[in-house]
């Protein structure tokens, strides 16, 4: 019993001007992650959407295994796989309109590819021939972002700018569970809510930040609950249920587009592979945990639901896999070609115009390259 | 200077703070993509009143009071720039810009490079900086070296009313990010100036000889920028009594650095002292002295000396006068430039 609860305790009146700023209840996420596949509501999902999701999931899984293989063949410096998270990647890649913007992290190349980026361009950062391989304006995909959560304020600023210009543009920003501990996560969500910016934040809670499990990351009831403190709705969704993620994101995008402001979506999923090819996940998690999640596979969940509705048969699965195989073969072939490297490009885009110092340094490198070439010529 | 003779009649005493405000206003009027954002910049007009009246004139969408979060301010400015706006960010004080450094270093300075020119960052970050205003802790830092050490940023510091206007217009017009360092203690310095006929200021990256010297045997160059320029001008004046003829170079822009103007002066005078408030160890003066030595070695009669703040955390206001380089310290350095004494000169043969 607190002092105030004691009988006859003095009950203060609220301080002058105090009033609740918003009703928190509608902002609260559901207690359980939202599921569609395997529920009665799955009967209402459009067959077209399911077929698209399926094709992309199968292709996405193959993309992940191919990219991981490319690390072993020395064709990628590093690859953070999204195996197991394809439902989130595919839904994020499909849910936006052309004019909208996607803000991916290093783990989200698949979402960018689903949105239409050439996978070779999407992988440029991870191959290491440049920091980004595409013009962000071409597909409205911001450069892959490595410093955790720093892409989130960019998404807010872009969405805010678009709204100021009167453009009907929504930004979808992706971040990991670990990234939600960063200050930029907080600042971005706060700005978005205060500015009522048309942004959707998708947290892929894959259980780990490299080796650190969510329990060491936060004491919040869920990551989606964090939304409430900013005054935006939080949604919790099963991140391996592609139809559910798509629906929740689509609703959030609609809300943002209609002037309803930002939404925080937490998709509960699992990182099946190690953090990257360079990581050893056996040091921090048991295989049994991974196996349990393999049994909750996004592709299997979707295929089961589609077979139930007779929207997919063995032939359909085979066709999707064959198409994914062709995609992977093409990626493999192109990634096995050495990228064209131009050392002189190092000086090209530091400033709009080279400074006199950069002109001098460029001349120095030019001379070194010429000397190298001359030496190589002598050796022949 | 291209000021028409007739326009001179319109010139009246104007403070640097007023000229900066006018530059923002004119830039916003000229280009609807210019947006000002920061803490207290709207209703209040900024703690130094530089943005006074902008929210009223252009609306709160163009001059926006943001939540109190420097990384968020700069981070959202990055997104705004991605979408074609030209954000002008105000950091409230030098030391309060530090939370924004991750955005600055990891994104603002690199986005053009990362995207091979597809996504330039036309962002101006205005930073009231430096000491001498009696500020308590965290209100007097000289933070220029952090910015200078980051490729992709331009770093500018005006020393005069005319430059404050001209360089800020140039910074906002630049397609690359500019750290615009506003010397707090010069905010209330005045000069006869007319906004209707502002002097033409050369583009970012050009230094200026603020006080020419004759370059004779008693000549030396004082190299400086921002709040230390008036100190150097005063020292140069005082040095005449000692028979020294000092030239004062105002760098105006630390990045890009104008080697040409600086070295032309030092080659003429043969001696140089770099003067700044920032700490000496690892400070801008080390870079400048090295550049001058590398380029002008055979013209130098003495090592390039530095007059800088001590290598200490910025002192409390009641002690700051002991820290800030003043005229005496500059003259002491000049005296140490290995002058040939009368006696040596007379008996040289
Ligand atoms: C600011 C910052 N600190 C540290 C790192 C190094 N790092 C890269 S990924 C990672 C874990 C991120 O975990 P999470 O946000 O959950 O995303 P996930 O990798 O699981 O997709 C860390 C610590 C980084 N990239 N950026
Ligand atoms: Mg994670």
In short:
Chain A: One of its GO terms (molecular function) is oxidoreductase activity, acting on the aldehyde or oxo group of donors, disulfide as acceptor. Chain A: It comes from Streptomyces violaceusniger. The complex is a heterodimer of chains A (380) and B (349). Chain A is of the alpha/beta class and 380 residues long.
Question: How would you describe this protein?
Answer:
With 380 residues, chain A is α/β, with parallel strands linked by helices. Chain A folds into two domains: 311 residues, Rossmann fold (3-Layer(aba) Sandwich); 37 residues. Chain A has 14 helices and seven strands. In chain A, the strands form two sheets. Chain A has a five-stranded parallel sheet, with helices on both faces. A two-stranded antiparallel sheet of chain A has the order 4-5. In chain A, helix 1 crosses helix 2 and helix 1 runs antiparallel to helix 12. Chain A is globular and about 100 Å long. Chain B has 349 residues and is of the alpha/beta class. Chain B has two domains: 181 residues, Thiamin diphosphate (ThDP)-binding fold, Pyr/PP domains (Rossmann fold); 132 residues, Rossmann fold, CATH 3.40.50.920. Chain B has a seven-stranded mixed sheet with strand order 3-2-4-5-7-6-12, sandwiched between helices. In chain B, helix 1 packs parallel to helix 7 and helix 3 runs parallel beside helix 4. The radius of gyration of chain B is 21 Å and the shape is globular. The relative contact order of chain B is 0.12. At the A-B interface, helix 7 and helix 8 of A face helix 3, helix 4 and helix 5 of B. Bound molecules: thiamine diphosphate and magnesium ion. Thiamine diphosphate binds next to strand 4 of chain A.
